[in-house]
Write a structure and sequence with these properties.
The chain is an alpha/beta fold and 302 residues long. The protein has 12 helices and 11 strands. α10 (247-256) packs antiparallel against α11 (263-269). The longest helix is centred in the N-terminal third of the chain and has 19 residues, at 74-92. It comes from Desulfobacula toluolica (strain DSM 7467 / Tol2). Pfam families: Methyltransf_23.
Length: 302
Amino acid sequence: MNNNLNMECPICKSANLDQMHDRVWSARDTKVFRCNHCFTGFLYPIMKEAEEKKFYADYNEHTKKRGVTLTTDPLELHKKSMKDASKRWEQLDNFFMQDGRILEIGSSTGAFLEQCSQKCECVCVEPDSINRAFASRFSVGQYEYLENIPDGEKFDVICLFHVFEHIRDPFDFLSKCSRLLNEDGSIIIEVPHIEDPLLSVYDLDSYKDFYFQPMHHYIYSENGLRYVFESEGFYETHIVFHQRYGLDNHLAWLKKGKPGGDVKFKELFGNSNEYCRALEKAKKTDTIIYIAKKNGKNYEGQ
């Protein structure tokens, strides 16, 4: 145990912590800790709220510096997002009822909503005004913040894709979501997983330098997600360990120590389904999808 700061895990309150990394991308004084009880990773210290607002005001610049996106044009962003959105919909289609009411929080330009709107009535929360306007093509309602949604609005499913890790207080957030859900409503989240193989299998320092970011307050584990959701009256119905990046990407990281891939590895190992499935079976994946119901019924007992 390495807990000289007398800290406790913000999720389960355990003081049994280890330092996972001694720096965070663009926030060198911040460190990464991991709880040995619920296995969640978290940053300390996290940004103050005023710092966070300023950070998100310049968020597109942050992503450009990291090479995640090279454009702020909503149409180009939308096109770039469609591949992941299509795969996501293929995975999750069965969890959305015909003509159900859906709320996506952090919709960006609405790439997932474009898929979902063929089956459901969609509403979105998106702080970026340009992306929110673009998402209006695929949604019947658009809000800047969760708090702007009128009292009485109810949804069958609330979904968040790579958003939940940004939430400062996940307990309060889920409480707000619960009030927006119908009695048998569900939440679907997709988040980065603390068992990402480049962290948990290869233990690659260059990847850690890139991976840990100041706006990702938490890097969730299976147990950590279960703890947060059950604390707010939700109960797990499904959990999916999903590996987004293949062998070619991992070999490129091991060779170069930076993002960007490698054409030769892509040609040789681009279709590395067996590798990804092995990681998923071992629960050593870069992504975890967690689905929980509001009413507390265990899925198998319904």
